Amino acid sequence: MYKKIFVLSILAIVMIGCAYAADSTDSLNNNTVTISGINFTIPEGFTEDVDGAIVNESESYEGYNYVTNGKSFENENHFLLMSVSEYEQNITEDILEDVGDETTINNVTGRFDDMGFLALFSYIQDDKVVVITADDRSIIEEVLS
Asked: What is the CATH number of the domain that holds 118?
């Protein structure tokens, strides 16, 4: 329960967004964006919503300190939000155990939760928690292609 609230709080940060300039560790090149060292494919037709960027947001949850960076994209019909959280402490997969069901999307194993109005896929890569949120699972599949 608490872990689901944790991931939903990250989602809330992403959805609210912050009007910051792009972080120097982030880049967009040929429909690929890198956030905190993690690469994502941006589907054709999506443009960045720079007002939805999250840059070096420091948070703490149940003794875990972390910094989140994220970007949001949209087209005329859909939205896409991606965040990467880097923790001061070592983290394991069990931090996500209460979020959705274990699922593999395009060779990436994580936790998927379909909440009706949005789809959420969370996983750990390079000791970072990655959260991809969109209004349709197929968009998440494109991001991970």
From this structure: 3.30.200.100
